[in-house]
Amino acid sequence: MNSLTRHLKKSIELIEKDCLKNKDLDLWKLGFHLMPPIGWLNDPNGLCFFKGEYHIFFQYSPFNPNGELKFWGHYKSKDLINWEYLGVPIIPDQTFDCHGAYSGSTLVEDEKMYIYYTGNVKHSGENYNYITNGRGSNTILAISENGIDINSKKCILTNDDYPKNLTCHVRDPKVWKEDNQYYMVLGARTQEDKGIILLYNSTDKVNWSFKNIIESKEKLGYMWECPDLFKLDNKTILVFSPQGIDPYGYKYQNVYQSGYYILEGDFKSHNYTLNEFSELDRGFDFYAPQTFLDNKNRRILIGWLGLPDCQVFYTNKTIQDGWQHALTIPRVLKIIDGKLYQQPIDELKNLRKDKLEITSNKEYLINSSFELLIENISENIEIILEKDIFIEYDYKNKLFTLKFNSENLGAGRTSRSVLLNDCNTIQMFVDYSSIEIFINNGEEVFSTRFYPEQKNINLKINSNNSNNTLWQLNNFFIK
Ligand code: FRU
Q1: Is the CB of 102 under 6 A from ligand 1?
Q2: What domain range includes position 430?
Q3: Which of 94, 105, 157, 417 could pair with 174 in a Cys bridge, judged by C-beta atoms 3.0 to 4.6 Å apart?
């Protein structure tokens, strides 16, 4: 480590000092979500289970709550409840990653972490547009033996190694092993402004050959970010985050989307088809999800509880407190009736403390974060938070809606809906300034931030015959 890198690490440690400890002083800090100690967080990165522990890395700009130069931050945990913050293992300190250590993934093998990420480089020059010229998108391999320190960083692919018809936007390697080979998917933008995925393969994790392009027949946006390809219940799922899709009915309402295709056929050849694209989350704050397999063979997804470039529509009031964004709670993926379901990870039940039966049509004041489970819904239902946020299912119109009435509480967030044939259960996690809603055991999910004026949350459920249970929740323990 040279002295500049050492200095950067030290400065970050200094500005982070006590941030996680003084969590409770800040009205909007989250109790059971991973946040940046200070500054800005975006994509989850390098998710893996390594030597008995979960490792969660994330895109991190400690010096600026509005995001800037990207580092990787790092948390680990044995049980997804008690966490340890481990600082910044990846620092953009090389010529091949000097304008940001962008997103990537971890492959665990031989008791080592093989971390693949994108080294972003912006060349200086006046006439660059940084789309078709002026940008280097390098694929970097970083190796860690102990899961904490990085022992080596090596540039293994540059723009010259990618197919010729691409812009400079190629990034976010996701790597996995299958049939004694290694595969890598990368998100890309073509010269014709079409989002696609590049597939590479390797036999030694270091030398990679271009193998295939995975793309939709009809264009779906100009850029596909953060690809992830995996098998689940005998289906091949392709998750990614497309940019540049126009709103259509209740769909694609956010500035950028995240969703999946079920891929039929063989993704290693031209012999595949992509079925209909489905969004993974219908709320205001969700992007760039990544999945991994844990030791219980669960396919776990974590997303960014936020979005880039949405500040013209809505904002996050935490910027005034020097930080912005968080990761979602982990969700276990399942295929049910050909559709991807997302269910909150079971470990969150260990956060439950006092249990309250909530009578419908009556107001409550809840003085902590909470989980609310509403079962046996068979008529219209309305859940009202802070007399202002309406979460409702309209049986006649088969419409589920999350709606902010005043501009203040949602900081500009308005209304999002999904058409849904039925609504039997709603499970909600409310964590001081975030709400995650799982409908019908994860058939649809809505995630959003909100900014109440106090920690006590006013709650009312208007319904005739549902069973309502609420658990007040403990916070994560972070050391
Ligand atoms: C997605 C993304 C990735 C990129 C990273 C940079 O939010 O744009 O494509 O690697 O963020 O922080």
Answers
A1: yes
A2: 348-478
A3: 105
91 in the same domain as 53: yes
Q: Which of 290, 321, 344 is the last residue of a domain?
A: 344
280 DSSP 8-state letter: S
72 and 209 in a single domain? The answer is: yes
* 163 in Cβ contact with 198 (< 8 Å): yes
Both 297 and 361 in one domain: the answer is no
- The pTM of the full predicted model, rounded to 2 decimals, is 0.98
Q: Report d(CA 67, CA 39) in Å as an integer.
A: 7
76 lines ligand 1 (CB under 6 A): no
Question: Quick check: is 281 catalytic?
Answer: no
Dihedrals phi, psi of 58, to nearest 5 degrees: -155, 155
| E-only strand ranges, 123-248 | 135-144, 152-157, 166-178, 181-190, 195-202, 209-214, 223-232, 235-243
**Residue 404: φ, ψ to 5°:** -100, 130
Ligand 1: residue of 58, 69, 97, 102 to mutate (most ligand atoms within 8 A of CB) is: 102
Q: Among candidates 388, 381, 375, which has minimal Cα distance to 467? A: 375
Answer yes or no: is the C-beta of 70 below 6 A from any ligand 1 atom.
yes
Kindly name the residue from 43, 172, 228, 281 that is annotated as catalytic.
43
Q: What is the DSSP letter of 234?
A: T
Q: Quick one: pLDDT at residue 126?
A: 86
CATH label of the domain that carries residue 472 = 2.60.120.560
> Does residue 118's CB lie within 6 angstroms of at least one atom of ligand 1?
yes
Residue numbers in the chain where pLDDT is lower than 70: 21-24
Do 217 and 201 lie in one domain? The reply is yes
Residue 457: the pLDDT is: 97
Q: Which residue, among 181, 185, 245, 256, has the nearest Cα to 214 in the 3D structure?
A: 185
